[in-house]
Amino acid sequence: MKSTFQISNNIRTLRFMAGEMTQQSLAEQVGVTRQTIMAIEKGKYFPSLEVAFKIARVFGKPVEDVFHYHDTRV
């Protein structure tokens, strides 16, 4: 049985709940580019642990509330 995984995130929702925070504002607080935040939100790029924790810290959430790991069996 082959194991695959998928990582999803709630960044867009959390930005909305944080007063409609822009991608640019989040990027500046985390120390990355807006394009990086956009790619992470779309699931096209997975952040390093450091960046994941920084994003979670901006929202005052544990990293597990921001990023979700899904293990799927094929």
From TrEMBL:
* HTH cro/C1-type domain location: 21-66
Supply the alphabetized keyword list: DNA-binding
- Which SUPFAM superfamilies does this UniProt record tie to the protein? lambda repressor-like DNA-binding domains
- A Gene Ontology molecular function term of the record: DNA binding
Record carries keyword Zinc: no
The name of this protein is: Helix-turn-helix transcriptional regulator
The organism of origin for this protein:
Salinimonas iocasae
